[in-house]
């Protein structure tokens, strides 16, 4: 129905050319998938290499269903194939002949032809009704022709089973009946054993007396009535007695006929129990210990019955060849078993392939001595152990992989899966976000270690007498919280210090909690109020002389230099807080010309210094060794300020292009470029606050004769600099 509607309304497209199939255009329809194509398009497609089947011999493939066809369509026919070049009729289906279809239906068991008008697509199911029997054949039913479902009744099947004795008890079913499930007893051929089997199984092996062989000796009486059958359980009948006179023609060893022995006077045998005459020669029968390479024969005289065991002996060596023993050949099979299983008790002392363990095998015959133990050493990840057999050299990389994202502590840096086992967290340039013991600013980056590095922020701490403030690292202060220090001239604290000020008395590290609590309880707790008021505590009586010597630090070169400078300052009567020669100052040196330029354009200098500071911090914290910044074109004075500031910051500066577009490019180098402690703007600010008030300007009165009473310009007076009052 869909095909008819699309063809009639000209909405159906050809899959080859993707154009609409017109109602008057010649077409071809695939008989497998029923797709409709332009006849010319399908001809071109069938001749193209892309349409050929994979084996190259099955023809060309349909563009829609890939069904292979041998013949290429040449003529335009209707859908049923009876009319060539059908003419279009407005009242009929396009490309049809308007007659009955008459094609065979897809159902194989339907004998009726399609009875509707010529049409595209598959033929509908047959509407006729037929009479069919059920699966067991006992009932009949009227069903639609071509119906694929099977008919089942509610009766018992009743057909004879494979055993031929019992009937099927299942309800009407499709296919063959199942084998008979009843069990019966079967007897072996010799009649000594029974077993249960399904009814009807192995009936073809029955000889009328039994159905299987029990693999035991038959034991039935032979036809002579005196001897028993010595064959393995077998179908009837048993063989003749092998000792009957009409069966035996030679002596026991088989070398001499009985007829010659009768001529020599031997008694003729009458029944099977009569002895067989012996020829008197050596038996010579091959023994069971022989093989293809050598054969041992019986050395006894001609005799009846089995031969004696072999009397030959041979040396048997253990597997490794260390020991040997003598053994009779006897039966060859048992001799081989003895030769294979004979092992000495010597243990192998050679190293195994791993080079770590000894072989230690008993009667070892191995040449490679491979180690069967598990390696067990830790892999490079440090979490798992090697599960390979023990080996030489380094273990392989850990094969385990995580499919979770691996991030730094703050989560900014991420390594996406798969992540090999043992991979360290990614490096992160962000500031550490872990909780810290102090509330000072954090200067270290994000890290994967649980413990943060010591705090490097400088804090101001009073001496024990609260007379002087010193800068001390936070971590250093925490570690020395149980030490009593005297730094510089702190006279109220002399009770804690030796006579020489170049030495510092340090409370010894507590090696036992007893000593710590003794000092804390006696000295600190009882004198807490005095310490807060600035008094000192005498602790020399609380410790021994030996501890006093251990607690005294030795003077080093720096301590001696400070002591020498202090004596020189006292001799010259120089204040200890002054720095006349700028010894303590570690700030940068800015030229007077640069300072004057900065005063005239303080905003420009501040912006330049801010850009340089950001550039230096970026290159020192980043992974690149150099970073550059290009300034816009500017005049010569501004370029000179940039060049001079670049020297202070340790930055390379180069000017490019010609006037008026000449500009400056600065480059910061890691390890070389450093931000100064005091910027130019901060230096100017300090000088402005520390500079004394300028004197009143002096005016000179003009000559009265000139008639001009105007004031002259003030003259500039040089300020007096006090070199003993320099700010830090």
TrEMBL record:
The question of whether Transcription is a record keyword is answered with yes
Compartments it resides in: Nucleus
Residue segments, region Disordered: 686-716
Per the record, the gene is: Nfx1
The superkingdom of the source organism is: Eukaryota
Family annotation (Pfam families): R3H, zf-NF-X1
UniProt keyword annotations, A-Z:
DNA-binding, Metal-binding, Nucleus, Phosphoprotein, Repeat, Repressor, Transcription, Transcription regulation, Transferase, Ubl conjugation pathway, Zinc, Zinc-finger
Residues forming the R3H domain are 602-670
Name recorded for this polypeptide:
Transcriptional repressor NF-X1
- The record's principal subcellular location, in a coarse class, is nucleus
User: Its Gene Ontology biological processes?
Assistant: negative regulation of transcription by RNA polymerase II
Q: List, alphabetically, the InterPro entries matched.
A: NFX1_fam, R3H_dom, R3H_dom_sf, R3H_NF-X1, Zinc_finger_PHD-type_CS, Znf_NFX1, Znf_PHD-finger, Znf_RING
Family classification: Belongs to the NFX1 family.
Q: Which GO terms describe its molecular function?
A: DNA-binding transcription factor activity, RNA polymerase II-specific; RNA polymerase II transcription regulatory region sequence-specific DNA binding; transferase activity; zinc ion binding
Domain named PHD-type is located at: 11-68
In this protein, which residues make up the domain named RING-type? 14-66
* An annotated GO cellular component: nucleus
